[in-house]
């Protein structure tokens, strides 16, 4: 059985994502409308609404397309896996569409918590779940003991970067911060070595 309606054109999906990202960089999340996005994309509202419920639905898709879900990380080493996760988070949090749009998007989903569900289920949850995979592999390799709190490690890795991108007056996210966050995670896991 096939779905009713016209098939989706990948080029329209890409045009909508690109238009949304460009507009967020130019204006910030709260000043972008669906009309703006479809105009910039050279598309129309029906095409947009066949793909997304609203602009909040665009966010997880854009993040996944640009920054992935980390499921391909497997260096054979806990230290190197965590460094790769953080390098990708460095790219994520320094992406202008993220740094310019994060606060406005977060304010919107705070006021409309049900609109955070697509982000949580299709982007945040898979990325956080992969921390469990990384730690389970480290246990199997004998690098760490069982029982580590993978959710805490995910928070420990992401928290400092998130602070740097959202709070005014803090220094930018750097490769040095990436190394410091991994070192802190290794310390929390009981490893006395640095990244």
Characterize the structure shown.
- This protein has 195 residues and is mostly helical.
- It is built from nine helices and no strands.
- Helix 4 (55-67) runs parallel beside helix 7 and helix 5 packs parallel to helix 8.
CATH superfamily of the largest domain: Tetracycline Repressor, domain 2
Query: How far apart lie the N and C ends?
Result: 52 Å
Strand content: under 5%
**CATH-defined architecture of the largest domain:** Orthogonal Bundle
The name of the CATH topology of the largest domain is: Tetracycline Repressor, domain 2
Instruction: Report the radius of gyration as a whole number of Å.
Output: 19 Å
How many helices? The count is: 9
Largest sheet descriptor: none
Low-pLDDT segments: none
- H/E element sequence: HHHHHHHHH
Q: How do the helices and strands line up, and which of them pair or pack?
A:
Elements: H1 10-27, H2 34-41, H3 45-51, H4 55-67, H5 78-94, H6 96-111, H7 117-140, H8 150-166, H9 175-188
Helix pairs in contact: 1-2, 1-4, 1-6, 4-7, 5-8, 5-9, 7-8, 8-9
